[in-house]
Amino acid sequence: MKWILRFFPRSFLIRVSLLFQPLLRIYYKGNQFTDPIDGSQYRKFLPYGYRKTLRPNALCPGTLSLERDRLLWLYLDRKTECLNQKLKVLHVATEQVFYRKFKQFKHWDYTTTDLHSPLANVKADICNLPFSDDQYDLILCNHVLEHIPDDLKAMRELYRVLKKGGTLIAQVPLEEEREKTFEDDSITDADERTKTFGQYDHVRVYGQDYYHRLESVGFSTERIFIQKDLSPEETVRFALPQQEMIPLMRK
After folding, report:
1. Mean pLDDT throughout 140-156?
2. Domain ranges of the chain
3. Is the pLDDT of residue 83 over 70?
4. Residue 144 has pLDDT above 80, yes or no
5. Closest Cα to residue 86, out of 116, 109, 118?
6. What 3 state SS string does the chain have?
7. Residue pair 91/99 in contact by the 8 Å Cβ criterion
8. Domain boundaries 68-250, corresponding CATH code
9. Are the beta carbons of 248 and 219 closer than 8 angstroms?
């Protein structure tokens, strides 16, 4: 199992999970960990990461949620009314666990978009979205921008299609101790990119100036640290990241 998690991407695990998800739920059933997204319980979560950077208890075997997904759900569920409101929502590169949940929301006008994902009902480039201005109340775009060479262009597009007063949540891998984002277009070798950026298909390592980039295209920004409102027991039971914040942007 660890060998599979080390060398295969999450997209592969999604396809495997669709076939074996009922068996995984049964095999790992227990009461040590809970996925707050659907309330399912497990005796363990699986390690997950890229190559040698496996994180323990990261991947829920029954839903394939990661730490960041569970963190986002808790924010939406406990700190907002978004899950209960009538909203027009755009989800860029939707995660399977959210897709299965959100597509059932009758009160959401829910659109998914991506260049390649089979979960996208609109195939589109994030730098050239085929949507009119001021369309969406909520945009979810998580762990996408670190893959985009011209991330400022993508940010402008997200700003354009968001309604005034609307909200963008755009999680990225962000090194809290890094002041400035690092990028180097001359690094094209996959192994070198992995060493430098953490993954072969990432093009930068974001630092604290990530928020300044978003503000430069018009967003107001806020950092949400929901862990401070959770009990230590919940943080362990949901297997949440200790320090990660949720980047919240408004138009």
Report:
1. 97
2. 2-65, 68-250
3. yes
4. yes
5. 109
6. CHHHHHHCCHHHHHHHHHHHHHHHHHHCEEEEEECCCCCCEECCCEEECCCCCCEEEEECCCCCCCHHHHHHHHHHHHHCCCCCCCEEEEEECCCHHHHHHHCCCCCEEEEEEECCCCCCCEECECCECCCCCCCEEEEEECCCHHHCCCHHHHHHHHHHHEEEEEEEECCCCECCCCCCCEECCCCCCHHHHHHHHCCCCCCEEECCCHHHHHHHCCCEEEEECHHHHCCHHHHHHCCCCCCCCEEEEEC
7. yes
8. 3.40.50.150
9. no
Rounded to whole angstroms, the Cα distance separating 47 from 45 reads: 7
pLDDT tens, residue by residue, 171-223? 999 998 999 999 999 998 888 988 888 888 999 999 999 999 999 999 999 99
